Amino acid sequence: MPHFSPKERDRLVGIGRIVLSDRPEILLMEGVGSCLGIVLFEPEKKLTAVAHTLLPDGLPEKKEKRPGKYVVSAIEAMQSGIAEKGGDTGLIRAKLA
C-alpha cells in the first residue's frame, strides 16, 4: 500500500467502505479490480457519496452489518446519507467504475 498522510488515509475508500463528503476533496479508491466503484453526486448541495463494493447483493443480515460491501445496499445507504444531509435524491447523478 502506498504511503498516505493521515488525512489522505481517512479519504481512502477501501473495499466495503462508503464515504460521504460535503466539500471539494479527493477521495481515493485503489485496487478496484473486479469490484464496482460507485459515485453518487447531488449537484445542488454539492454532496458526494463514494462506495467500493465487492458483491452485487447479499443476505439481509450481512447487508445490514456492512452495507458498503454490496451494490444494492451501498446505493441505498448512499442515497439515505445524501438525503440526511439535505440533498435532493431526485437530482443525483451516478458514475460507475
Overview features:
97 residues; alpha+beta; 4 strands; disordered N terminus
How would you portray this structure in words?
With 97 residues, this protein is an alpha+beta fold. It is built from 3 helices and 4 strands; from the N terminus they run H-E-E-E-H-H-E. The chain has a 4-stranded antiparallel sheet, with helices on one face. A hairpin with a 4-residue loop joins strand 2 and strand 3. It starts with 5 loop residues before the first helix and ends with a strand. Mean pLDDT is 87; it is low at 1-6.
Radius of gyration, rounded? Answer: 13 Å
- The average pLDDT value, as a whole number, equals 87
- The succession of helices and strands, N to C, reads HEEEHHE
Q: Tally of extended strands? A: 4
The side-by-side strand order for the widest beta sheet comes to: 1-3-2-4
Structural class: alpha+beta
Poorly predicted runs are: 1-6
The N- to C-terminal Cα distance equals 20 Å
Give helix % range: 25-40%
* Shape type: globular
Number of helices: 3
Strand content: 15-25%
Largest sheet: 4 strands, antiparallel
Fold blueprint:
Blueprint: H1 6-10, E1 18-21, E2 36-42, E3 47-53, H2 60-65, H3 71-84, E4 93-96
Antiparallel strand pairs: 1-3, 2-3, 2-4
Summarize the entry for a quick read.
It contains three helices and four strands. The chain has 97 residues and is α+β, with helices and mostly antiparallel strands.
